[in-house]
Every structure is written in C-alpha cells, then in structure tokens.
Design a protein that fits this description.
The protein is α/β, with parallel strands linked by helices and about 260 residues long. It has a domain of about 180 residues: 3-Layer(aba) Sandwich (Rossmann fold), CATH 3.40.50. It has 10 helices and 10 strands. A 6-stranded mixed β-sheet has the order 6-7-8-3-9-10, sandwiched between helices. Strands 2-1-4-5 form a 4-stranded antiparallel β-sheet, with helices on one face. A hairpin with a 5-residue loop joins β1 and β2. α3 packs across α4, α3 packs parallel to α5 and α4 crosses α5. The longest helix has 14 residues. The chain starts with 13 loop residues before the first strand and ends with a helix.
C-alpha cells in the first residue's frame, strides 16, 4: 500500500520527523532499516506491525532512550541528541503497557507530581498541574489513594496522568487497551479522543486503532511498509496478510470506518 497522499506537512507543523533512521543492537541485529515517519501536530497515528518488527525500538528513539546510529529523529524542531534529552523527554511522554512501571509513590498525587517537581515546579503551580492532569483522566477524587489500591484500569489512567502532567507535545501509548475490561477500554478511548495532543499508539488491537486513530502505519522487519487511513489499511487483505496482521473474526473495518466519527 502506498504512503498517504496528503501534501507534505510544512516543517513548522511536524511534531515528529524521523528520516532514514537506522539502528542495530550490539549483537548485530538490525532493528530499524531506514525508517521515515512524519507526524503532524494534533494527529493520532496507530503504529502497527508483527512482534519483532521494531516498534519498541522506534518508540525508544522518540524520547532519546536510544540515539540514532543512522539518520535522524526530530521532535518539534529539536533533534534527538544528548544535548536536548531533558527537553525531548518533556515533549514526548510515553505511557507504558504496565502502569506499575510508572507508579511507585505512596499516593496518586505524588506520582503525578513527580515529573513536574523534578523540572522545578513548586507550590500552588505544582498542585494545579497535578489537579489538571488527574481531572483530564477522571481520577481527581483518587488523588490521596495509594495506587496499589486502584483497579488496573484506574492505574492505567493515573499512569497517563503522570505523563500529561508534563504537558507533552507527543503522547506515545504502548498497547493502551491491553488487559482492560470493556468498560475501562471505552472510558480510556473517550479520554484519549478528548485530549489536545499528538498521539502515536503502538497496538495489536486493530479495532482500537480504527476507533482512535484516523491514520495507521505498519512497521515490518524494521521498515515502514504502509501508511494510509486506518480503515483503508485494515481493509487491504493482501497487506494485512503479508505482515501477519489479523482482524477479529467478523470485524469489518470498511463498514465501521464509514460511520460518522
């Protein structure tokens, strides 16, 4: 499937600009092979692909955990390099698949305050930032609860709030719907669609990708092999089969993609 037919985004509109990105691990495994990916401010993009495609490696380049061995990664006009890492990690917030990887304080409010406090925010400004982030995810009334007393879905929302408290320009979500019951899944979708932030969502949940992301890209064997409107891409049986992507039985993306959004 060919790349999206949209006109090239002006440089000032690009919040993610990945050009010719290559990366290999010390054992010689080439995880990324010339990846090009541009995401405009305000877009919601699903990053799809089989296990081992390089999705996690790509995500780890977006906030500087890995640095490019070839090509470059730009975030809102800043190249991802050592001199910019603190600001890059403020601009790109990553919500991990397991919320317990991000929650380690005794109270919800302390977890949400941790990042902004490390940037020097104090007093009333910090309290307002924490309250705003918790309100965005519908968890304001749980501010004084221990995170480990919350349900899994609630902990995932608090983990999201810890990232939103940093006021990122890009929100990267790693399998956000995994292990959620249907009600929690729907509630998280409503929260994510209400946010005024650029979203890159790594997921194997193809119906969730269609619900949340108008655009999808497929990464396979370290390369971007498809970039298109999500409904069109999921309806392309040949592309899906070639890259080991399967829809749930009976799910019709063409019919659902045509509904009002």
């Amino acid at each position: 499937m060919s790349a999206s037919s949209d006109d090239a985004a002006p440089a000032t509109d690009l919040v993610l600009d990945v050009v010719g990105l290559g990366f290999a691990y010390p054992d010689g495994h080439a995880a990324l092979r010339g990846v090009d990916l541009q995401v405009r401010r305000g877009e919601r993009v699903a990053l799809l692909g089989p296990n081992g495609a390089g999705k996690t490696t790509l995500v780890l380049h977006l906030n500087g955990i890995h640095l490019p061995l070839a090509g470059r990664v730009g975030v809102a006009g800043l190249n991802v390099e050592k001199a910019h890492l603190q600001e890059i990690r403020r601009r790109v917030g990553v919500v991990f698949q397991d919320p317990d990887d991000q929650l380690f304080m005794g109270r919800v409010r302390d977890d949400v305050a941790f990042g902004p406090a490390n940037l020097g925010l104090r007093g009333e400004a910090l309290e307002e930032r924490v309250a705003r982030a918790l309100d965005l995810v519908g968890m304001g009334e749980y501010a004084d609860r221990p995170p480990h007393h919350l349900s899994f879905g609630q902990r995932r929302r608090v983990a999201l709030a810890t990232v939103l408290a940093m006021e990122p320009e890009v929100l990267v979500l790693d399998e956000p719907s995994s292990n959620l019951d249907p009600a929690s899944r729907r509630e998280l979708a409503e929260i994510l669609t209400s946010l005024d932030v650029t979203v890159l969502m790594v997921t194997h949940d193809l119906p969730y990708a269609l619900e949340l992301c108008p655009r999808a890209v497929i990464l396979s064997e370290g390369r971007i092999v498809a970039d298109a409107p999500t409904a069109a891409l999921l309806s392309d049986a040949a592309t899906m089969a070639a890259h080991r992507l399967e829809l749930p039985f009976g799910f019709d993306p063409a019919r659902i993609g045509s509904l009002p959004r």
